[in-house]
Design a protein that fits this description.
Nucleotide Exchange Factor Grpe, Chain A, domain 2; three-stranded antiparallel β-sheet
């Protein structure tokens, strides 16, 4: 039994050659198809140009946003500085009439033969004007005569043993205190009745507070 390929070598060679030609043609077609999927040089240049334009636009937007942020920050800083500088402008304007009244009172007091009673009335009116101005700006006077000693708002300068005063009661005010929007600006300087005060008062008086006793 003989092999068909060995019986006719010429036919076998032709078949091999044809097979090789088919393989080459297939590889060429595959390579051509693959090369057709890849962008050309012109396409790459166009794509790169578009990307660069997008990058430049993004950088430009970022720079504009940063510049606007800097402008906002500078405006806010100027507003804060202006607020600090002119925060008391309304208060000063409200005080000017009080200053004018004081100047007129001082001038009137220096006139020969002045009526002291009228000067006193003018001072009383000026003091009321000042109190009204402070009230408009939530400045409250602390004048605690007869009130129980409050260490948060009062500062005891001395203590006195007074039989007619309840213990730990403010009996005199050396200097008034002030609150601004309910916050203590200056405590009232006061004299406080001692723990031994009020010996002739009824037993239902409030007990002595510990904070004032420490000042004795």
């Amino acid at each position: 039994m003989t092999d068909k390929n060995t019986e006719n070598p010429e036919v076998n060679a032709d078949a091999v050659e044809e097979n090789l030609e088919n393989q080459v043609e297939g590889e060429v077609e595959t390579a051509a198809e693959a090369s057709s999927d890849q962008p050309s040089y012109e396409d790459l240049v166009k794509l790169l140009t578009e990307l660069q334009a997008k990058v430049d636009d993004s950088n430009d937007r970022a720079l504009r946003a940063q510049a606007e942020l800097d402008n906002v920050r500078r405006r806010a800083q100027r507003d804060v500085e202006g607020a600090h500088k002119f925060a008391l402008e309304k208060f000063v304007n409200a005080l000017l009439p009080v200053k004018d009244s004081l100047d007129m009172g001082d001038a009137a007091a220096n006139v020969e033969g002045v009526d002291i009673e009228k000067v006193r009335e003018g001072l009383t009116l000026t003091s009321k004007m000042m109190t009204d101005v402070m009230g408009k700006f939530n400045v409250v006077e602390v004048n605690p005569v007869g009130e129980r000693f409050n260490p948060d708002h009062h500062q005891a300068m001395s203590m006195q043993d007074l039989p007619d005063a309840p213990p730990n009661t403010v009996v005199n005010v050396f200097q008034k205190g002030y609150l601004l929007n309910e916050r203590l600006v200056r405590p009232a300087m006061v004299v406080v009745s001692s723990a031994n005060s009020g010996s002739n008062l009824s037993s239902d008086e409030p007990p002595t507070g510990g904070k004032v006793d420490e000042l004795a």
